[in-house]
Structures
1.
Amino acid sequence: MEPSIVQDVQTVWTDSTTWLAAHGVTGEAAVGWLTAYWGFIQWSIMVSAVLILISSIDDLFIDLAYWTRLIVRFFTFWDRPPPQKWLDRHPQKRIAIMVPAWQESDVIANMVANTNKSFDYGPFDIFVGVYANDADTRREVEKIRRRFPNVHRAEVPHDGPTSKADCLNWLVQNILLHEERTGERFDVFLMHDAEDVVHPYGLKTVNWFIDEAAMIQMPVLSMQRPWNRLVACHYMDEFAEFHTKDLPVRSALTRMTPSAGVATAFHRAAMLALVREKNGLPFNTDSLTEDYDVGHRLASMGFPSEFVRYHARIKRERKAWFRKGKVTHYPRELVATKEFFPDKFSTSVRQKARWMLGISIMGWAQLGWFGSLVNRYYLFRDRKTLFTAPTGMFGYFIVVQVLGYWGLKLFWPEVVDLPPVIEHDWVWLIVSINFFFLVNRIIHRAWFTGINHGIAHVPLTPIRIVVSNLISFGSFWRASRQYLGHLITGRPIAWDKTQHAYPSLSELQQGSGRLGETLRFWNALSEEDLNRALAAQRNLYRPLGLMLLDLGATDDEHLAEAFAEHGETYASMFDPFQIEPDVRNLLTVDEARRFGAVPLRRQGGSLDVAVAEPMPPALRQEMERLIGRRGVKGVRVLFAPLSDVAFALRFAWSQDPFTQVRSRLSQMRRNGDIDASREALLWRSVRAGYVRLGDLLVREGVISHADLQTALSAARRNGRHLGETLVSMNLATSAAVDAALQRQKSAGWVNEALARALAEAPADEFHTVS
């Protein structure tokens, strides 16, 4: 050992003993304290070892039950799954999918669209529960509802957040009211969340197995995450083991499976029984884990529930190995729902604290101990985390203390010589057995992670077990504080919702990523119209987005959203007259027209800029350099409808030509005849009718797209208007240009259109001006 290190340690030790002596603590007293503390460590090791042994034996029993069941199924025909063709031919029941949503505007549209596109099934409807005060989520649900006729907005008539159970109760009520209005009858009620990525065969699996049990639960797994994201990947470990081993064993032993809150299907008879039991409130609003609660309540009413693991061959595409392009294959996949779980430590603690509070603490208080001996055993397993979480953390603390003492002995041999940390042979025996159980736990966790997520995630399994234990202790501490606060103050425990994320289309592997397929994914374009546009494009080239607008096959709002999806940014409509002048003037009108871009707003030191079409990289870099020289640190490009951008480029930099109409609208607001949202809808209906001059001429066959691009380049070089340039280059006649200008929506037309819309619109709705 280096002499300097030893000298440093001796100096620290001497300084410490000097300080203790100065404060009346002699060496004999310090030794007494240290000996007593060491005795506490010895006692703690004994208690922790026994508790860990009890938990490990419990886990070993489940391991043995799993492997016994697997071996029996392998060598017999017991519990063999039905052939896939049977599920394909089975008469399809009508299924209502319930999606509770509170502040889910970032993910709900993608989730609903992907769910509609993914399920290989016929009669199903999606009901999204939204709160009265969640305007952003309501807007997204309305947008997706217009595209998919089987999507319905289920109203929660009061402000949120309340609880997921409350939102689900209103969802059920909305579904039953929908049945009364339409005469339809739903045979199955299926729960999903706004972050769920469903499996194509999910509804066919539900359709078959719901006949065998009143409630079925299908597997839930984590989406694939990068191997070095330890917090995110620990969910992959836990859900892979729990939904491959623990829940199937529980279902086989008890015929009762607790719901996971997603991918849970209820037979109509079971749902109506829950409705009757609680006077119209099937889900327990006093529980933070209503999914766990509902499975036990069904069991107490005599309704069995089952965990269903089914594998199906699904048509997929992958890259060809020995040539370019893709090939079709049919891999055998587990029918499971996947989602992104939190990847931050604090967020994970919040989420798991809610689970622990609802299942282990409030579940104990509300459900007690009931049922058969096997059911009571599983209730113990659900609640044992209340001692395993702190015990595991205390075990880490003990290890740190012992290693610290050994390290001190290494540096300073003359330090107090304490007795062995484990003095009794029986304690050594338990510790040795626990070490075997630890190895067993690591092997099992790695095995289930490997078969569900691939071998690349296996090596870090031991490290992620430590991460999992740290998160569990943090969750235990948070849940305990929340529950004690509830007992002391009497205040209800709030719905501690975590923010959700949803994969992009590329992560979902939806199509090739081309514009037409993105629009098809959103149900904003029919296959027939796409083929028609592609055929027209082959005859006379025009960018696909503009060709679709020319044919009326889609609208520019959908086009902006598709471009935003490709660019992994946002799409947004905007009112050019709401832009601050100092922001708008970061670009001159000529610069804005050259770039086809409109400055929208400052976000910190950055600037949001709206464009209607993807910008060439060189042009975008030129714009960013220009704006950067004007004191802006960064630029974020958003996509907006072409009509919004064109309208802004025509009117935003000039004197406001709409003062008369704005004055009338102001008076209407003062009188309460119109509100801000309706006024915004009215202005959008007017902007939607605005078309660029060049696009008008192309649509009418006066010029080709190639002619338009040539004229635009010349107009930019010469500083002339497009119409003048077309005439001077003999690409269009003066009469044709004048006629197009007359048809183009001018400021005068806008004033007339607004006045007409205000006069004709009913009191409760404004129609789009055509």
2.
Amino acid sequence: MTDEHAAWVLPLSGLVCWVSCHTTFGLLKQARESTGWAATAWLVATGSAAGAGIWSTHFIAMLGYNPPVAIGYDLRLTLASLGVAIAAASGAATLIRAAAGPATIIAGAIVLTAGIAAMHFAGMAGVRIPGLFVWDERLVAAALVSGAVLTCAALFVFLHRIGRYPRAIAATLLTGAIGSLHFLSMAAARAAPDPSMAVPDDGLARGALAAGIAAVMLAILAFSALTLFADHLRRANRALASHGAALRDSEERLALALDAGSDGLWDWNIDTGHVWLSDRCSTMLGYGPGELEGHVRTWRRLIHPDDEAKALDTLDAHLGGRSPVYEFEHRLRRKDGGWSWVLARGKVVQRDPLGRPGRMVGTHIDIGARKIAEEQIAHMARHDGLTGLANRTCFHDLLRRALQEVADDGGACALMCLDLDRFKIVNDTAGHMAGDELLRLVAARIAACIHPTDTVARLGGDEFAVLVKSHPTDEYLANLARMFIAAVGQPFVFDGQMIEIGLSVGIACAPQHGLAEQLLFSRADRALYRAKAEGRNNYRFFDTAMDAAIIQRHELERDLRKAFLGGGLQLHYQPQVRAHTGELVGFEALLRWSHAERGIIPPGEFIPLAEETGLIAQLGEWVLRTACAEATRWARPLKVAVNLSPREFQQDDLPELILGILSETGLPPERLEIEITETAIFADTNRALLVVRRLKEAGISLAMDDFGTGHASLATLQSFPFDKIKIDQSFVGQIEVNPQAAVIVRAVLGLGRSLGIRVVAEGVETMDQMRFLVAEQCEELQGHLFGRPQPIESFADAIAGAEVSRAAASAPNVVRMAFAS
């Protein structure tokens, strides 16, 4: 090989072979991507380029082969070898185009390798020397194996696109296959001279062979140029197709966006009045695509009459250059006759040389959902979330406007303040869910009574207000108040439970009761307060006397505080006796107030005032401390009873406060009796039960005051460990004249005996009352018959063991009134 080949052969043949292989794979790619006759043409080009490359590689190498004998080439066999190479390459290309599986790759590699070998040995058969070629079979086998392996690898890389440059890698591997097969085969050949054999004169000379190789190389270069052109054309077509597809996708996306979005496009030729409308412009109003006439008069015909003037003014401002853009919210008529809210935006995009607008484009955006949301938010801001009525803010605005109209134009209006009676009891007993449902039903009943021009509002809690503008006469307002009371007084049913409540109404009228909002409200509230004070479930008009009552109330509150701080309050005591023996068992401590100017103020007047102002807690603590301190100085260890108001009973530290006072004054717990009413218990039943049990554990006696006047006395007695029941004086005072009162008192006494609870009768004033109670086995008595409430000093003799009162002393042996010493 090294002795008989020129040095320039290897690089030149390798270069020619690589170029042809690279061209072959480019043509094969075109064949695989084409169909029909185009695919056949590309297959023919592929086989031709591959065969020419193989043949050129072989004969370029043969031009550099210089054996030690004369050499020539047979024309027919030389051309035949070219045909064999082209045929084999075409067959392999046809196989590979059809599929790319492992079996196809191997079959194509075998066909192509066989074609290379056939071309080589056919070409060697056409070499004419004065002798014979002798072959080394082992090297020939090695040439075939190496060629097949490298060819298979080249096809695999090309078909599976391995690496960054698969065509270049595949061309390199195929060049190696052709080169290894050629040069190993040449290495296997030995020229054996035979003088008897001569080179034929009609053989192909080296010059002619070189010319033929040059022609084949030009063909290869032509195929290479064709490949490059096809690649560029394919890339250009692909780019164009990609661009076209992207453009189509973009157009489709734009069309979808316009159809699916809320924007409708319009283009207005101002000179002609013609308007191009997108399909969305039509469909958002319920029309089909193209159904709306494309003219500016169409828009003017569809616009809401209330919006037309302002819409045209806004448009003129933009066309005249006074506004940079046109933007306006208005309503357009739908095909079904309804109205749709749209946001119109537009801008002049074209003007003539004189600056006059010629073309304007813009959008219509459907803002119906936003308008609904805005209306809902506005409604929520001005209406009560529970009942749907106007809220406090909205009502005050309406009242302020109504009063301004009365002040400016005359006329009248009225304010009615409504407050539910016994609503807190419903909330505490039936629960807040029942309370909420009750408020909704009450709101519906009140709203059903009013005129459409009037307004009802929920101010908060169980407070309602009505603004009456329709017929603000006294007669109409009185009838309306009675309608409210009757409607609310009808029973409510919740969760199978019957609930009954009442309603109190206060009325103030404008202008006679004032034109200032706060003044009218305060006067309606005063009328409401009067209605509640006079028995509830009632209505009252404001009158000037109520102002005087309010002023008097404020003065009384001021004087009460002064009296408390200045020592103007004192305790009086009323005796409690054992019915059958007349024995003095204790005193009830009662708070009294002697006013410097008004004289004695009844407890029923100043105790509620103290509860409303919050002074009751301080008063109650003073009463308890003073009573305990005085009881420790009595000659005998008698009991002292002290009332606790509902407000006092709600104090968190009540047990600690009472026990602290007992410890401070030194009074034994068993001498103290705490009297409470059912109202104090109902405020918080669970907490009240804990407080009562704590006091009982400390040894303090407990009495239920005013028994029979509450709402659930039997249930209360069952749950709470009371030591005494005090029959309210309203029953005791009627037992002589009212048989029903006597039956009630007798029933309560029997109930006490059954439960093992002592019973005290309050308000005993006559001997007949005492005889009845003694006969019915009442255990303890209290009332004016045994002594009116007096300072404790007035009972010094009784405490020491003397008589309680002359009236009792003169009783004919009914009961011994002398007190045990």
3.
Amino acid sequence: MRFALRNGFRSRLQSRRTAQIAATVLAPLLALGVVGPLTHRAAAQSHESAHPRHLSLDAVTAAHTLPNGLEIQAGSIQSGSIQSGSAVMQVTALRDDLLRVRIGATGTLPEDASWAVLPASRTASVNVKAENTDKTVGFSTAKLRVSIQRNPLAMTVTDLAGNVITEDIPDHPIEFHGNEFRIHKRSPEDEHYFGLGDKPGPLDRRNEAFTNWNTDAFGWQESTDPIYKTIPFVLTFRKGIAAGVFLDNTWRSSFEFNKELRDGYSFGSEGGPLDYYILYGPAPKDVIQEWAWMTGATPLPPLWTLGYQQSRYSYYPESEVRRIASRLRSEHIPADVIWLDIDYQLKNRPFTVDPERFPHFDQMIQDLKAEHLHTVVITDLHIAKLPNAGYKPYDSGIAGDHFVKNPDGSIFSGVVWPGPAVFPDFTQKSSRDWWGTLYADFVHRGVAGFWNDMNEPSVFEVVSKTMPDDTQHRIEEPGFQTRTASHLEIHNVFGMENSRGTFEGVLKLAPDRRPFVMTRASYAGGQRYAATWTGDNSSTWNHLRQTTPQLINLGLSGFGLAGADVGGFAGSPQPELLTKWLEIAAFHPIDRDHTSMGTFPQEPWENGTTEDLNLRRKFIETRYRLMTYLYTTAEEMSRTGIPMMRSLFLEFPNASKDRHPIDLNTNNEFLMGPDLLVAPSPYEDMLDNYDAVLPPVGWYDFWTGKRIANKGQESMRLGNDNIPDKELQINLHPSVDTVPVFARGGSILPIQPLVQSTEEKPAGPLTLRVYPPLRAGNPCEGSLYLDDGISYAYQKGDYLRLKFTCELTPTGITVKVSPREGSFTPWWTQFSVEIYGATKPAASVTTASGPVTATYSSEHQRVAAIVPDDGKGLNLTVTY
């Protein structure tokens, strides 16, 4: 059976691999600019041949103030004199902490439109104060100061305290070469760079270089670039101060850090508008919230999407899907989702079901629902080219003129999974609306979510692995000029507009249910429409390690609802690797086990011993006990844009002694939400002990409840905040049996009883784990958000919000729960309050109603009491 599957796998991927081999052979030439980019460059220049062949913005030739900024004309210096400038540069303040820079090389600013930035944000404005001298022009806002040196032209942005946020390099002026442009910024040696989406490599982008060109990158490795997404947003961090730079340009673009210039970084594009934004913190969270204000936050997902998800390429026939579902339940592995890859379809044709493999598809969906399992199906964007065959997606698409075209007006066709295929023209609103209607049958059948794969777009049997550069897209979109654009302009936004069409279409079909869409390719702002994952990774220890910086940088780039193929997609993991990956992924935003055709089975009960299964089950169960905390964190993300999975510097920007990002000391640690720190071994396949770093706020072992004692935490308890970085370390021993997890001192975590799915009602009280701060006066707080998990009723007040606080007293501790906010009724009627860090039993535990019986565990250093919850709030006082 496995031999047959592997032969089928080879056949199915033959065209993809041919393209990959060809791309590998051409890679050195691509890097040298001999092929590939020359083609792009030629197409770009033919598209906008009105641009000057070469222009250097060397000096300001004229300037005038605007209510919200300034506009200048710029020229070049030739033979020692300034030439009259034809370029125009406009710098405006959208908010006091957010600037926009637009430059037109021929004296006209580019079209004021964006696929990424929300219209209300892009057109926002604040008044500024002009600040001009003989040598500079500029202005200030309530938070920033902009100063543009007249000759040579160079812009510096500082905060009002004089800290440099971004600074042009005077001897590297803004340059245009035909339609290409490049901007150089100064890079102090202690500045660090994050973001740019799912690009592999280290967390810090310093000393790296990247190309933005969405690419089907099967088998990508740590050095592979580009891969699936284009998010040209960089978060900068220096001495505790954060800022951001976003180049809003959908063409092939690039960012390089300290490669061309040791003390500089640069960004540019081969075509399109020079339109970029500067975001100011000073805290990293401030920048992330500004980014969400600009491009939108991830919508509140359905609760079930945070549950464990089982997938592979592919579960078929129908009996195999039912077997997997039955085994999940019989093994008591909590789960919420089963995914169907392309083999459920008839001959790989999107929006079809193979009647032989799935003779009772509708009944299967309902039977899975009865087991509290949601079904997510793949719906690739390539429509099989089947004229006169009764294939509705093709026939209706042709009738509505919804497909991408060649330059001669014929419909573009490329080979993908179903063979010859055509592609919807997603830059037309009418075509996205049509695309959305194709989901009606699946929605009515009860399919819960949809997977938009292959949407870079991927095309087989061509070296480029995508559409030709001159393929034509029609832009008919509110806020844009109606026109035709080449694929060079649309390629990087194609996947986002695909997922947008899916999200909006499914929402229209079921307006009171939150859609769930998973996309592989996207652009900045794509988080408004879809979750994502890191694509076709591999079953290697290095790829497990690579997952952490990828997911953190995706979160910092806006995609906070993201995951990886747990266990790895390409290849079969060692049993220990699968176990460890399932353990760590229990703390990721999306937890989906997925693998390729021809690999060994990768379900939790496969590829390992009974001990492996028990460990895998334990961590999935832990995820479900944390579900209330995870959902609360997801709701915060939907309001603020702050991701669920976080870098340490996002929560602790001043944790290190010199205020560098403490993550650079941590070797793959991360935070789930604000209060749980996960510290896996940096190299899980090695046996060496390792040092984890704990920011100086006090921490507790999540598994045992015991307070962590090390020099840094003790110094903090005694009031010494100037702690050397090395004193924040704790030495750990790697083990397949566990993953070190720590709870933040001064946090209160809601923990629920174990369930087998998010639809199952928990039985018992809601546990509040109270981890007291290390000293009186330090913050101690937590929160909880809950609703029905599926609808938009929360927007009308049908939700529950609680706030928790604690305060150390001379004799003990007081824990407070706020009165309920919102009309949603929770499943619990009691709180189990657990207070950690207790070295002896409580002398008394009381509420407003009187004494309460309490228990004490010396093993977990915990005092616990069960009290009723009447919704009116709670004050619980513990005296030792």
